[in-house]
Specification:
Helix 1 crosses helix 2 and helix 4 runs parallel beside helix 5. The two termini are 29 Å apart. With 495 residues, this protein is an alpha+beta fold. Helices cover 31% and strands 26% of the residues. Strands 11, 14, 15, 16, 17, 18, 19, 20, 21, 22 and 23 form an eleven-stranded antiparallel β-sheet that branches. A six-stranded parallel β-sheet has the order 6-5-4-7-8-9, sandwiched between helices. It has 13 helices and 24 strands. It comes from Saccharomyces mikatae IFO 1815.
């Protein structure tokens, strides 16, 4: 639903002022609708409102919740729909966009449990130092004095300064937000998950090289790392913004007596925050009894889970634990939250896909016979007692991965899962006797020749579409054009 009716024409200063009012909680003054200007959604037209994310968010808030004065105050729905349309169009452009990466600081993360991976990393570092003099490479600090990695020898062989190889630690990464321009991982999906867990906010674009046995995230072959890195560092690439989940863990304390009112008061303490790329799992752990979990959506009780547990996964994690528990496959470009039960004690509890705007809360029921355990991407396992809960929302900080091909997701599930892999139906001509096979070939050729002009006996033979000139022109056309003509004729008779 598009409309050309003007709504707002605001400058950036006006947007900043209104944004500050919303952030400070001042909602007393209404927005003035001017007599001229462009729609909020028409961001690409001249004279339209061009503000940053916070300003667009402010206008959406005002449209949906505040009083807007002017001639259009009684009919804001068209503008609301137009804004939603523009946001969808902008997201489509972002997904299809290609960007050029300006890399100065490059971090490499490898599987340190495999010695061969260290030598492969050494080859990659040497090649980067030789071919890209402006790039500084950061490797893990455990290799600073490693005789296997031998950083000093690498600098000598590459004829470069020793400070071009530097070393990172977990604290260094967390204290230097938005410092790295590119990340290379050498390993399997676990290495990518580890790399994601180190960055609580902005994650640099990841180039995941496959050195594991089964990988849905690692779509680059290390044998071709020189060609791959040269193309990424010199050309434009497409980036997949993989959604993460922001999980906040809360602990319920024992009730205390309020000295003022004399009533029992239960305090809830915030414990920790986690950003997961695959899934957060709440299960019964070693308890012999079923888990009894409460699932809330936007503060309302959705259902109670009686079973082994619950999986809340991202689209990236839909090919992991959630898939094994019967969940659906979701393309990484879709922003959604997958909720999959683990062995539910009911036949009607099916997996469900929820919008990424929903805030979920999983709470251990007070009547649960046992405790539950929560883990984030398979790590940081914490026990949840009765009344403890986890709040799960879509993280504002995605994990960008460099796309190997436009169809990498389908190639990945086809290669790793043999998705929809079966033999095609075959004709039975190969089991005929030689005499019948010969007759079959003759009849087949005759049938094909008869179908060259399927409209020769049509009651519409007098139509200009079946004139002799048209038939001669059709016979001289190429196969692709014949398909177009055939489809046109079908449309004609359908009318």
């Amino acid at each position: 639903m598009k409309t050309d009716k003007p709504l707002i024409n605001a400058s950036t200063d006006t947007c900043n002022t209104i944004d500050n009012e919303v952030e400070t909680g001042d909602k007393s003054s209404p927005i003035k609708v001017l007599s001229d200007g462009k729609l909020l959604g028409n961001l690409d037209e001249s004279g339209s409102m061009k503000c940053d994310y916070h300003n667009v968010k402010t206008w959406v808030r005002r449209l949906s919740s505040e009083t807007i004065v002017g001639d259009d105050a009684n009919n804001l729905y068209p503008f609301y729909v137009d804004t939603a349309y523009s946001v969808r169009r902008l997201r489509k452009d972002i997904i299809n966009a290609k960007v050029r990466l300006h890399v100065e600081n490059l971090i490499i993360i490898c599987n340190i449990n495999d010695v061969s991976t260290v030598f492969l990393m050494r080859e990659a570092v040497e090649w980067i130092l030789r071919n890209f003099p402006s790039i500084t490479v950061y490797v893990q600090d455990i290799f600073e004095k490693s005789t296997q990695f031998a950083a000093n020898d690498l600098c000598k062989d590459s004829h470069c300064n020793q400070n071009r190889i530097r070393f990172w630690s977990r604290d260094f990464v967390q204290n230097h937000d938005s410092f790295f321009d590119l990340m290379i991982t050498l390993g399997g999906d676990g290495t990518v998950l580890f790399a994601s867990s180190m960055f609580s906010k902005d994650v640099p674009p990841i180039v995941p090289f496959s050195l594991g046995s089964l990988g849905f995230l690692t779509n680059f072959e290390f044998q071709k790392f020189q060609i791959t890195l040269r193309n990424i560092l010199t050309d434009k690439v497409r980036i997949n913004l993989r959604m993460r989940l922001q999980c906040k863990l809360y602990r319920r304390n024992k009730p205390e007596i309020d000295t003022i009112t004399g009533r029992k008061v239960c305090f809830i303490d915030f414990v920790s925050e986690h950003h997961v790329l695959n899934e957060v799992t709440i299960d019964r752990g070693p308890a012999p009894c079923l888990s009894l979990l409460e699932l809330y959506g936007h503060g309302s009780l959705m259902t109670k889970v009686q079973g082994d547990g619950l999986i809340v996964a991202t689209p990236t994690g839909s090919t992991a634990y959630s898939l094994s528990a019967g969940g659906s496959l979701i393309s990484p470009s879709v922003n959604a939250i997958a909720v999959t039960p683990i062995c539910p004690h009911t036949l009607s509890f099916r997996p469900i896909i929820l919008p990424d705007s929903m805030e979920l809360k999983v709470r251990v029921d007070m009547n649960s016979r046992g405790t539950s355990w929560v883990n984030f991407d398979g790590k940081d396992r914490v026990e949840l007692k009765q009344g403890d809960y986890v709040v799960i929302t879509a993280s504002p900080y995605a994990v960008p991965t460099v796309e190997s091909s436009p169809s990498e997701f389908f190639e990945s599930i086809s290669k790793n899962l043999n998705w929809n892999d079966r033999e095609e139906q075959m004709p039975f001509a190969h089991i005929l006797s030689p005499k019948n096979q010969k007759k079959y070939n003759i009849d087949s050729s005759k049938y094909e020749n008869d179908n060259i002009s399927p409209f020769s006996e049509s009651p519409f033979s007098e139509s200009p579409f079946t004139s002799s000139d048209a038939e001669d022109e059709e016979k001289n056309s190429v196969a692709g054009t014949e398909m177009v003509v055939e489809r046109t004729r079908q449309a004609y008779f359908a009318v």
